[in-house]
Specification:
heterotetramer; A mainly alpha (406); B alpha/beta (722); C alpha+beta (255); D mainly alpha (199); A: 406 residues; mainly alpha; Formate dehydrogenase/DMSO reductase fold; two-stranded antiparallel sheet; 2 strands; globular; B: 722 residues; alpha/beta; Rossmann fold; Dimethylsulfoxide Reductase, domain 2; 4 domains; 8-stranded mixed sheet; 6-stranded mixed β-barrel; 30% helix
């Protein structure tokens, strides 16, 4: 009944493509069921590593998904029309990232059937409660933003009343863009807050402004800086695969510029934060930062990589309009940005646990188990599937002519 | 058009349903019930319900016999506690005692009689058949065998049960063999005294100095009371503990003075200390003059020790001469206790080492002196209800090789590990058979031809032991606190079923008999655990009253007796031992000509019930904290590791001429260079099973020459290429 | 995060110099609190030990070699308790009456945030369904509920014993319990009397005196979590190793 | 045309609504709880009557440790029912099936709390002077034992979760949820932490 749009891949090609990802998804699903039905011993997490790659990657994915709320904000509130081309894909990406993250979280917690207690007996002080609330609500917002896209499918839009409905939705989308912005602003922040508030973990603990630790703001900034870069990457990738020019250069250029300047700001603040942390915060809790980096696997090199190599460098590239003209750099730089954000989340999540706080405890490293990787692979493939379907059946890109096959 | 109508209506129906459901409590109740389900689903055990009953008993897991308070629900013990004020254990319970009740459900518990068939396969057989088989074997042996061809290995001799064994064996001209336990060496001292000697105990609590040759003084030696008094800060009133041990044991680390002696040179050090005492005239001249029978004269003690000058001794033992002098003087400065230790895994010291050690006690005039060696009066144990010849009790070491044709191993817990090779040496090579009455698989008995499972200490009534440091005799019972399973059977019942001539009394008859004789004796006092106080025995009108008190967890303790030291021989009566003392300076020859590069010293952890199983909870905790490394780990010092090319965590294979075990290397700077320590006993893997077969325990490696001593095993340590 | 000052402040003093690492406290604790026997593959980082005895050597050779054993359980932090603030669904709280930090398995959803936040690594997660050897369920302590798979658990100062003591007191018409009526299993089981448990708020109690003594120190004091478990030692190297000393901050030493 | 279409849709909507609410309010509760008969009939009235003259705490007493003995063991019944008194079916069953073989009677407990709840009866009855019936209802005045309504899914007695399925107007004796405990504690100004009532 629902027809693919014109000039999409032939069905056979599409099926082979999607089939591969469905297989991967099935494997992830199986591993997920193992954890849900038998317990989390199938992972390599342990009492020293309460958070594993799932949390790390969820954080990364959510940060990258920030492109959705941020571009929606720019387009609908600040009326940056250049983003018209990407907003569709941005919304889909956001939806994928957030819904995927939530599913993985449900597997990650030991008792998902009780997860709703957070809403029934919330702990107002807990950053995680804040995250849960904002995340759930924002996921709803994304879903609602997603609906008009679905309804734009020609064979659905045959139906008059649904078209009307779609029109109505479109009017309020501005409102949702605003709400979404606020919500995700807060949960990106509280995700950072997760670490900054841990007064028992000197590596992660940071100075507070009002009730929020500095990581709260750094996470927001890094997220909205990385979001656009991730949009660039994904859209370029989509164009590569579909061999079509999906997005106009201006959009890329705008995204790149935004990303660059925000990242520069982030790098500046992050450096300042790090300096305060080295000279005041950590010593105040009895630790010298040198202790944190004395193990080779988490040496100072990682600090350098995070701030300079994958921070300052791409920022400088992206704020330079001449360099932005270079297509290769417009792939490399955003890639560096995304990696940089990943490193930041990795360090905050895993290094802070590798380091013992008790002087007579040992430094522990952890490698994810096949199950953990498989489950996350499943989530990635879920993303690919949803995006492919959306691309095939929905007018993600206004740039392309859309007409149902006849 | 019709299509869209249908769709709209369907949507309407669904929408209405959704709204309706939301307006009913069902979905919310469902959400709640799901959560409740996760809170008490069936993958989590139900708690026992019902009123809690409190009872008192004694621990039967080792010979310390600590008093226990047991909380039960519906007939199963749900909690075990110490009994404050208990005359022997003073409220102390060790980890094993706390967790011991779980042993009844241990995975390695034997739940049916088994026999090894002609094909070498072990299979279950009915109880009746097992007993018949035992009877047949007895007949064979009786027809063929001479003296001692039937033997019982008794891990806790001196009980009424042991007397029943001896009586049963008496009729068969069999041998009653002592299992290893920490107070075995005291019999060496008794043998040094001239004429019949009473049971002896060590008055550790009142000693000024404790000279321990590898005894676990701070790890639960003897009663809990002694232990708890000796531990902790160096208080002035607390005995000064000198630990003479090669391994950095917990006692060595905690002792006031740790002498890290070269492996197997205890004899030399003891004689070296004697040398100082004699040459500096620090010994008790009066007693020695009156009672010592072999001090002077050719080959006399004086002549012997003269050859052990501190300098020479220091070269052999690795302990500097000054320290030797210092220790000797401290030792002579007041009542002292000498303890030649028996390690649960490493076994006893050599006979001459024990003799040399105890000669110090005699020199110091500590025998019969408060704070030294005290005598316990016999109390009702000597006679049986019915008369009859008693087989005499012998050390396993003194049993002639190949003499045993039918060995019955008593099932009591707390026996220390014995090397397979030693047991095998004593068996008749052609038709030596082993019958195990143990409730668990024990590594030393893994090859038992016939196994008839008996009860565990918490299930059966028996006598609690008398700890090594108890100055007086006592009687406490292990009152059953849980039901014995149907497949388990009391060892005496098995014997009575195969007994031809003699009649074997039941354990209850025996115990009641002793209780009655004690009552007739009108000595001592009885401790009431529920009140926490003792009353004189004379206040018990009838023997029934005493029996009731004992069967409800009471403890009878004898009145202390004075004992003056009889004449004695400082080198003992045994010519062979005397001879070995004289040759002590010769370098200890390696067990066989086999060239070796490292010295393997097996040891056993305290309160791990010898080579028996470990309660799952203990196995788990030691595994998770690596607080006790089991037989899968070998501890060496960094230097040795460097020389042999090992680093922490390497897999290594320890080889002797008899076989090899594979271990993981652990480094400890406190270990002697060239020595490797490997624990004997239950694995902490799985649920703490006892070793399940030959070849995975260090005790399969020693060849047990040299007077059945296996503390020092020449071995090779090779890398395992995986 | 409760601001009311507790009437009682239950705490513990552990004399490191008396501890010889026998592990009786761990065994007693596990039996008292129905801590499950996790499968062997758990290794050293996925087990359940409400109180864990660390063994630390000074890496010196004989005769200078020395070993210290440090039993570490939940420290029941009295100030900015790290685990309480982070729990999203209020499964952790500090008892305003006695300062005991609780962990309610039935409320916990197993997100493990509290474990990450705890500086003492004193919280443990049920990676497996709770296991006991066949047929031993009826040996469990009826006073403490077993935890199910997928939740966090930790020391709560043998709260089952606190309940029992309260019941006994109430049956005699008292609403408050006497100091000698409530003792933790580890303190009771320690053969060396290394562990002293009691009310820190009661200045005359032995535990309060010891905690105030010159040899006492707290683990990671500089984090400002105000642990209610104190440690004693006369051995300098142990103190230097175990007690984290404040670092000089802008010239002035920080405390 | 459009109007009729809209009307039919609304009709369908209402059908859905009604069906779902009927299911939610009536069908689900009926299906969720199973009703189990007690092993024996028992009349509290008869036993507490003057000619028998038993007091409540002859059977439901506190132990020396302060714990609640709960439902009496068979031993208590034996005192009078060694031999059958009268010839009622239940009486004979009691003697034949339980007293003679010495089996305990598997009574079903209406107010059984889950393992993780700690309820010290003595603190409530002795210290707070709360009458038993406030939570258990006037059980002493019952002639027969009603069947136990047990949640098939959670195993809870309905007395615990509450007989009002909506869970709105619940209070003891018809509901003994945590919220009920909390309400009462609040009323009486008892400030408690989780561990006060959870073990």
């Amino acid at each position: 009944m629902i027809e693919p749009l014109t000039n999409r891949a032939p069905t056979r090609v599409f099926l082979t493509w999607i089939g591969f990802w469905i297989a991967l998804f099935a494997i992830g699903g199986y591993f997920g069921m193992l954890c849900l039905s038998q317990g989390l011993h199938h992972t390599n997490m342990n009492n020293r590593f309460g958070f594993g790659i799932w949390i790390f990657l969820d954080l990364t994915v959510i940060a990258l998904g920030a492109g959705a709320f941020f571009s929606a904000f720019l387009l609908y509130i600040l009326k940056k029309q250049a983003l018209k081309d990407v907003i569709g894909s941005a919304v889909v990406l956001g939806f994928i990232c957030y819904s995927g993250a939530v599913v993985v979280l449900a597997i990650d917690v030991g008792q998902p059937l009780r997860a709703w207690f957070t809403f029934w007996h919330p702990n107002a002080h807990s950053m995680l409660a804040e995250v849960t609330f904002c995340l759930t609500l924002y996921l709803l917002v994304l879903a609602i933003e997603y609906v008009p896209l679905i309804l734009k499918n020609p064979s659905l839009s045959k139906n008059v009343s649904l078209l009307i409905f779609e029109g109505q939705l479109h009017k309020v989308v501005v409102v949702f863009a605003g709400v979404g912005a606020v919500l995700s602003f807060f949960h990106q922040g509280s995700l950072g807050g997760l670490y900054g508030v841990m007064n028992g973990r000197p590596f992660a603990f940071r100075e507070h402004f009002f009730i929020w630790p500095s990581t709260f703001f750094l996470f927001i900034l890094s997220a909205i800086a990385a979001g656009p870069s991730f949009l660039i990457l994904i859209n370029k990738l989509a164009s590569k695969i579909t061999k079509k020019q999906l997005v106009r250069k201006e959009a890329y250029d705008f995204l790149g510029r935004i990303s660059g300047w925000l990242l520069l700001a982030y790098v500046g603040l992050k450096s300042a934060d790090t300096i305060v942390w080295i000279n005041h915060t950590a010593p105040a809790s009895g630790y010298s930062v040198s202790e944190f980096f004395k193990e080779a696997s988490f040496g100072t090199w990682i600090l350098f990589a995070e701030i300079v190599l994958f921070g300052l460098l791409p920022a400088l590239v992206l704020i330079n309009s001449r360099l932005r003209k270079r297509p290769s750099l417009m792939i490399v730089a955003p890639m560096l940005v995304c990696i940089g954000i990943a490193i930041n989340r990795y360090v905050m999540t895993l290094q802070s646990q590798s380091l013992p706080t008790l002087p007579f405890e040992e430094f522990v490293l952890y490698t994810p188990s096949l199950v953990e990787i498989g489950v996350f692979g499943g989530m990635i493939s879920y993303g690919v599937i949803v995006f492919s379907l959306s691309y095939r059946y929905l007018p993600l890109y206004p740039g392309l002519r859309q007409k149902a096959k006849t | 058009m019709g299509f869209s109508v249908k769709r709209r209506d369907f949507l309407g129906l669904v929408g209405g349903g959704a709204v309706g459901a939301a307006l009913s409590p069902a979905p919310w109740k469902g959400l709640d019930d799901i959560a409740i389900w996760t809170q008490n689903w069936s993958w989590k055990p139900r708690l026992p319900r019902g009123p809690v009953e409190v009872a008192f008993t004694h621990c039967g897991l080792c010979h310390a016999g600590c008093g226990l308070k047991v909380r039960s629900v519906g007939g199963s013990p749900v909690g075990v506690h110490g009994v404050p004020g208990h005359p022997l254990s003073a409220g102390f319970v060790c980890a094993l005692g706390l967790a011991g009740r779980y042993l009844s459900y241990h995975p390695s518990r034997i739940v049916e009689p088994t026999i090894v068939g002609a094909d070498g396969q072990r299979r279950g057989i009915p109880f009746k058949a097992a007993v018949r088989q035992l009877g047949d074997w007895l007949d064979d042996t009786r027809s063929g065998g001479g003296h001692g061809s039937v033997a019982i290995l008794d891990n806790r001799p001196g009980r009424m049960r042991s007397l029943a064994y001896r009586k049963w064996l008496g009729a068969l001209d069999g041998a009653h063999i002592k299992g290893l336990r920490e107070d075995t060496p005291i019999n060496r001292l008794r043998a040094m005294l001239d004429g019949p000697a009473p049971e002896l105990g060590l008055d550790i609590a009142r000693a000024r100095t404790v000279l321990s040759f590898g005894a676990p003084v701070l790890e639960g030696l003897g009663s809990g009371e002694a232990g708890s008094q000796l531990r902790g800060r160096s208080d002035s009133d607390k005995p000064y503990i000198v630990q003479i041990e090669t391994r950095p044991s917990r006692t060595a680390r905690g002792a006031d003075l740790w002498l890290r002696i070269a492996p197997g040179t205890e004899t030399v050090l003891a004689l070296g200390l004697a040398n100082v005492l004699v040459s500096e005239g620090l010994y008790d001249k009066e007693i020695i003059a009156q009672q010592a029978l072999d001090l002077d004269g050719p080959g006399g003690y004086r002549e012997l020790v003269a050859r052990f000058s501190p300098k020479k001794v220091s070269r052999i033992t690795g302990i500097d001469a000054a320290t030797i002098k210092k220790v000797a003087r401290r030792f002579a400065s007041g009542p002292a206790v000498v303890i030649p230790g028996v390690d649960p895994g490493g076994g006893p010291l050599s006979a001459e080492a024990q003799t040399a050690a105890f000669s110090l006690s005699l020199l110091n005039g500590d025998v019969g002196r408060p704070g030294g060696v005290v005598a316990r009066r016999a109390s009702g144990t000597t006679q049986l209800p019915r008369e009859g010849r008693l087989a005499d009790t012998v050390e396993l070491a003194d049993v002639p090789d190949g003499s045993i044709r039918l060995l019955i191993a008593d099932g009591v817990a707390g026996g220390f590990a014995i090397p397979t090779s030693l047991l095998e040496r004593k068996l008749n090579p052609s038709e030596g058979r082993v019958v195990s009455l143990a409730p668990f698989e024990r590594s030393a008995l893994h090859g038992a031809d016939l196994v008839i499972p008996s009860t565990t200490p918490f299930e059966s009534i028996d006598e609690a032991g008398v700890p090594i440091d108890a100055p007086v005799d006592s009687m406490g019972l292990t009152v059953p606190s849980m039901r014995a399973p149907d497949y388990s059977v009391d060892s005496l019942r098995v014997l009575s079923m195969v007994a031809k001539s003699s009649v074997v009394p039941t354990i209850t008859e025996l115990l009641r008999g002793r209780s009655d004789r004690i009552h007739a004796g009108e000595r001592g006092s009885v401790f009431d655990p529920s009140k926490g106080e003792s009353v004189p025995l004379t206040e018990f009108k009838t023997n029934g009253d005493l029996w009731r008190a004992l069967t409800s967890g009471g403890l009878w303790t004898d009145a202390s007796a004075t004992f003056s030291c009889p004449p004695f021989r400082l080198m003992g009566a045994n010519a062979a031992i005397r001879d070995r003392l004289h040759r002590a300076l010769e370098q200890p020859s390696t067990a066989d000509g086999w060239a070796h590069e490292i010295t393997l010293m097996p040891f056993g952890w305290r309160d791990a019930s010898g080579d028996g199983p470990l309660p799952p909870v203990m196995a788990k905790l030691f595994r998770e904290t690596r607080l006790r490394l089991d037989s899968r780990f070998a501890t060496i010092c960094p230097k040795t590791a460097g020389d042999l090319g090992f680093v922490e965590g390497d897999k290594a294979s320890i080889k002797t001429s008899l076989g090899s075990i594979t271990v993981e290397v652990v480094l400890d700077p406190a270990v002697v260079d060239g020595v490797v320590h490997v624990a004997v006993g239950p694995s902490t893997e799985a649920f703490g099973d006892a070793s399940r077969g030959k070849g995975d325990q260090p005790l399969d490696l020693p060849s047990c020459e040299n007077d059945a001593c296996w503390r020092v095993i020449p071995a090779k340590m090779l890398e395992v290429v995986s | 995060m409760t601001k009311t000052t507790p009437q009682k402040r239950y705490g513990m003093v552990i004399d490191i110099d008396r501890c010889d690492g026998c592990g009786a406290c761990m065994v007693a604790c596990s039996l008292e609190n129905n801590v499950s026997v996790v499968p062997p593959e758990a290794g050293i980082h996925r087990g359940l030990t409400w109180i864990r005895v660390y063994s630390v050597t000074n890496e010196k050779e004989y005769p200078h070699s020395d070993t210290a054993y440090l039993p570490v359980s939940c420290q029941h932090c009295g100030n900015e308790t790290p685990c309480v603030g982070v729990c999203p669904q209020s499964a952790v709280d500090v008892d305003p009456k006695n300062g005991i930090v609780s962990q309610i398995p039935e409320r916990c959803m197993g997100c493990r945030y509290c474990m990450v936040a705890c500086p003492y690594h004193a919280r443990y997660f049920n990676w497996w369904d709770p296991v006991w050897p066949e047929g031993t369920e009826h040996l469990l302590n009826p006073g403490v509920t077993p935890r199910m798979r997928g939740v966090v658990e930790k020391c709560n100062f043998c709260h089952g014993r606190h309940h029992a003591a309260q019941e006994r007191a109430a049956s005699e018409g008292r609403s408050e319990i006497e100091p000698n009526e409530y003792q933790t299993a580890c303190a009771e089981a320690c053969p060396n009397g290394a562990i002293t448990f009691g009310d820190l708020a009661d200045k005359d109690s032995e535990v309060a005196k010891l905690a105030a003594g010159p040899e006492s120190f707290q683990l990671l004091k500089t984090l400002g979590t105000g642990p209610k478990v104190y440690y004693l030692t006369q051995r300098g190297w142990v103190r230097d190793m175990a007690a984290k000393t404040p670092l000089p901050l802008d010239g002035q030493p920080d405390d | 045309m459009i109007l009729t279409r809209r009307r039919t849709t609304i009709l369908f909507f209402i059908i859905g609504l009604v069906v779902a609410m009927l299911a939610g309010w009536i069908a689900v509760p009926a299906a969720l709880y199973e009703s189990i008969e007690q092993p024996l009939g028992f009349s509290h009235v008869v036993h507490s009557s003057d000619d028998v003259g038993m007091e409540c705490d002859d059977c439901h007493h506190l132990t020396s440790e302060g714990g609640f003995a709960g439902i009496p063991q068979i031993a208590v019944c034996v005192d009078c029912h060694e031999e059958a008194i009268g010839t009622s079916k239940d009486e004979l069953k009691l003697v034949e099936e339980y007293i003679k073989p010495g089996r305990e009677i598997p009574w079903l407990v209406y107010a059984r709390q889950p393992d993780n709840a700690f309820f010290p009866h003595v603190r409530h009855t002795k210290l707070a002077k709360i009458p038993c019936k406030q939570c258990h209802g006037d059980h002493g005045q019952t002639k027969t034992l009603r069947p136990l309504k047990r949640n098939r899914f959670t195993g809870y007695s309905r007395d615990i979760w509450g007989h009002d399925f909506s869970g709105i107007t619940t209070s003891p004796p018809w509901s003994m949820k945590m919220s009920d405990c909390v309400d009462c504690h609040r009323k009486r100004g008892v400030r408690d932490s989780c561990l006060a009532c959870h073990k």
